[in-house]
Model the fold of this input.
Amino acid sequence: MRSNERQDLGEELAGRGLRATRQRIAVLSLLRARKGHPTAAEMHSRLLRKMPDLSKKTVYEILDALVNAGLAGRVTEGGEPARYEGNRNPHYHARCRVCGRLYDVPAKADAQIRGRTPLPEGFQVESIRVSLEGRCLRCADEI
Done:
């Protein structure tokens, strides 16, 4: 990782009230660099190559802190292990029901959903989560 990237991530962490430790910077960097939605165990495995003393517990704690600070997202799907993402732009998820892969899909229906959904009086929508399920191109021929 370049030193200016490390510095930028450190400033981003500090801006959200988190200490910029080398472990936090490494986890956030991996999330941002990686397209996809890794589990904590997958991230731990990847990070062990460069940080052999990093515990799985530390990775979980860092991911929780990043999610709580709004720097990462947690995706949970029907009893499967939580997956994490660095993409904080508004988006939905499409999940292949065969292989389980998650895809990011641009969020374009928020205004229509907000305008057509009756809400309890005084309720303020903070976010909308949409999950699409189907088969990806790789799995379409397997069923």
